[in-house]
Specification:
single chain; 475 residues; alpha/beta; Rossmann fold; 6-stranded parallel β-sheet; 19 helices; 14 strands; 43% helix; binds nicotinamide-adenine-dinucleotide
């Protein structure tokens, strides 16, 4: 099948490469000439494990091509995917659909008769209807179809998610689109017995938002339970396991952390709320999720300050992990950004390390010193804060890390390290949803700015006793 993909970002590029891997002839088109020029020369603009190899293999086989010329991309394509961005509209929170509508306007006069135009971008209910009208304003009704096929891939494991998805959701309004999309996905996914949910276009559009809002809610639920664990001396990881092994609940998305971020959950929850508001429907659970997550992201800075006894001015803080999650270079809505900016406002000096995200982070953050080497990053630091649980960060030698630090304080916002082991080495540990049993140890007290006497806590009992007047909320 000949396929065109409009928008060569995380979704468009992965989709295009994977369709090519299924043996289709794919042309990816983008307005960003630099991106297309790089791809034409084998330079993949994003970090996604396995993507370089896939692009190289299928480009070499002539099944995958890149262009800025839309007419060339659409030539003889029987399916055209729109995979452009739908960022939040500044100051409004709903999805900015201008890129989708622009793509529809541009492709309308160029497609062949009987082409199926598929909206893969995450779009609010009814967007397919508008795309249909836009194309219908320059083409005869019945000569084209508009379908919805939301994408559920996760950055970091995008290729596996695309090639072996849990399900494929397809929304159609006519038989031609149903047949072509069944042929496209059905044949390729047969071996994995992947369920295909074939539904109306409007339902398909809403499924994507419902799924993301549900996952965001699950994360927020465990994050709030983590706060409770800290207050009552329980361990959130064991709690999540004990809950999650119940098949009705499931263990995934029950890792407590600094709050969800990334390019999808924050914007998609907001957009769902907007749709619900526009239709006079209350989805209170999503409202609460959004509010709780925003508050949590802000509170993480207070958690760091708390661990530093509110003495942040002039302190050096080493940040390990900047991207919104491991195995991606995506910094969109990463929790590291508000955390770092708040600490800077309180006078901290920030050093940071991320295995692949430093270039993108450098475009967003200012006055941060970046280090390729995590040990060098921790040099003379008063605290190390783990924000993203990259494998390479989990595997760091804590004893070596501690040696170069001014003060052995580990604030582990992902529970990436075993708390007991870190404490054995001499770290004072502030983790998520764990009773704090930390001893306080100053590695080199002379080097501490405004060195002062710090409370010591010996065990969970002491910790819960002290915690009564020690809530992050009060700071
Ligand atoms: P992105 O910003 O990485 O890429 C979008 C690309 O579209 C850019 O390269 C841009 O130059 C290009 N573009 C915009 N208008 C164009 C036009 N008229 N013609 C040609 N190219 C154009 O976005 P993304 O992360 O790939 O997301 C795309 C869509 O998929 C969004 O709706 C997003 O919500 C959804 N989605 C994203 C993910 C993810 O993990 N990133 C997962 C599932 C769904």
């Amino acid at each position: 099948m000949k396929i065109a993909v409009i928008g060569t970002g995380y979704v468009g590029l992965v989709s295009g490469a994977c369709f090519a891997a299924w043996g289709h002839e794919v042309v990816c088109v983008d307005k960003n000439a630099q991106k297309i020029d790089g791809l034409a020369h084998g330079v993949v603009p994003i970090y996604e494990p396995g993507l370089d190899e896939l692009v190289e293999r299928h480009s070499a086989a002539g099944r995958l091509r890149f262009t800025c010329n839309l007419a060339e991309a659409l030539n003889e394509a029987s399916v055209v995917f729109i995979a452009v961005g739908t960022p939040p509209r500044a100051g409004h929170g709903d999805a900015d659909l201008s890129f989708v509508y622009m793509a529809a306007r541009e492709l309308a006069p160029l497609i062949d008769d009987d082409t199926v135009v598929v909206v893969k971008s995450t779009v609010p209910v009814g967007t397919g209807d508008i795309v249909q009208k836009i194309i219908g304003s320059v083409r005869k009704t019945g000569t084209f179809s508009v379908a919805s096929n939301p994408e559920f891939l996760r950055e970091g494991v995008a290729i596996r998610d695309f090639l072996e998805p849990d399900r494929v959701v397809i929304g159609v309004e006519d038989e031609r689109a149903r047949e072509i999309l069944m042929k496209l996905y059905g044949t390729s996914l047969d071996a994995h017995k992947t369920p295909i949910v074939m539904t109306q276009r409007r339902t398909s559009e809403l499924i994507k938002y419902a799924a993301n809002a549900f996952l965001a809610t699950k994360i927020t639920f465990i994050n709030e339970l983590a706060d409770l664990c800290e207050q009552v001396g329980s361990n959130v990881s064991d709690l999540a396991l004990g809950m999650g092994l119940d098949k009705r609940i499931g263990t995934s998305f029950l890792n407590a952390g600094p709050g969800y971020g990334g390019s999808c959950f924050p914007k998609d929850t907001m957009a769902l709320l907007r749709t619900a508001q526009d239709h006079g429907v209350a989805v209170r659970i999503v409202e609460e999720t959004v509010t709780a997550n925003e508050a949590r992201k802000r509170r993480m800075a207070l958690k760091v300050m708390d661990a530093l006894e509110s003495d942040v001015e002039g302190r050096t803080i080493a940040i390990l992990g900047l991207t919104f999650k491991p195995d991606t270079d995506d910094m969109r809505d990463a929790p590291s950004v508000p955390l770092i900016e708040t600490l800077q406002r309180f006078g901290a000096t920030i050093r940071a390390h991320d295995p692949v995200g430093m270039e993108n982070a450098g475009r967003i953050l200012s006055d941060v010193e970046f280090f390729e080497d995590p040990y060098e990053c921790a040099h003379n630091a008063d605290a190390v804060v783990v924000i993203t649980e990259w494998d390479s960060i989990r595997k760091l030698d804590l004893a070596r890390l501690k040696k170069s630090m001014r003060q052995a304080l580990l604030i582990d916002l992902r529970n990436a390290f075993e708390q007991g082991a870190a404490e054995e080495i001499g770290f004072r540990v502030s983790a998520i949803g764990r009773p704090t049993t930390a001893r306080y140890e100053v590695t080199n007290s002379a080097a501490l700015p405004g060195s002062k006497q710090v409370r010591g806590r010996r065990n969970a009992e002491d910790a819960s006793f002290e915690m009564a007047g020690d809530s992050n909320d009060n700071l």
